[in-house]
Design goal:
This protein is mainly beta. It has one domain: Ubiquitin-like (UB roll). A five-stranded mixed beta sheet has the order 2-1-7-5-6, with helices on one face. It is globular, with a radius of gyration of 14 Å. The protein starts with 20 loop residues before the first strand and ends in an 8-residue tail after the last strand.
């Protein structure tokens, strides 16, 4: 796995053992995800740290608390709006949209 917030597997002290890889779609782009990853982890592995706009002033939002309390990371998964990316584990074939997801004032 690569990304600005991830260690290469050989340097990770936890030595993750990803058993299953599968495809998901992020904003129309087919990407590889690993079993057990959250939607937020997939997005961050792609280098996406902010995926929605708040208040119409160009203020970008994304993962903030990482535990489902703040709702800053909401997006659309399989057509369902306001899914917290930090809590939802990806499943094979998921369609994730960061556009038009939970914009609030």
């Amino acid at each position: 796995m690569t990304g600005p917030y991830l260690l290469p597997a050989h340097l990770d002290p936890a030595q993750p053992r990803y058993q299953a890889r599968f495809a998901v779609e992020v904003d129309g782009r087919r990407v590889t995800a690993h079993a057990g990853q959250t939607v937020a982890a997939v997005l961050m592995s792609l280098g996406l740290t902010a995926w929605r706009e708040c208040g119409g002033r160009g203020r970008r939002r994304g993962l903030f608390c990482g535990i489902g309390v703040c709702a800053e990371c909401v997006l659309v998964v399989n057509g369902a709006p306001d899914v917290r990316a930090c809590l939802r584990s990806v499943e094979p074939g998921d369609v994730i949209s960061t556009r038009g997801s939970g914009e609030r004032g």
